[in-house]
Amino acid sequence: MNQIQSLLNDCLIKTKHVEHAAIIKLKDEIVPCAVRYALLLSSAFFKNLLHVRREGLYFKEKHYKCVRADECSIYLKNEDRGLIAVKTDSYILVATYSEGMYPSVCVEAVEKLGNSFMCLYV
User: Which residues belong to the signal peptide in this entry (predicted)?
Assistant: First the structure.
């Protein structure tokens, strides 16, 4: 768990454009994301992608409008906040950004880490 938290801090939080980050392991365990949010995002990718595109997603009691959603990534926005989720074969990487942060930097960092996970942790 410490290695994962270090990875999230080093690759995402230290960019200063990612507020919170988590990794959801699709097979066995969930770290360090709350179970219901992990299930929500997992379901969004595997069962409800079209619904997410049309209706958005409620996450932590806020409605997020879908900016982009495909089988690899979901970008959501709520006023001055946003959520980025990137799916690899084994994980879903989740990051949020808030006011004053650049969404494009958040997206780039999460996508880059997702590509690294595809190569290293599958």
Answer: none
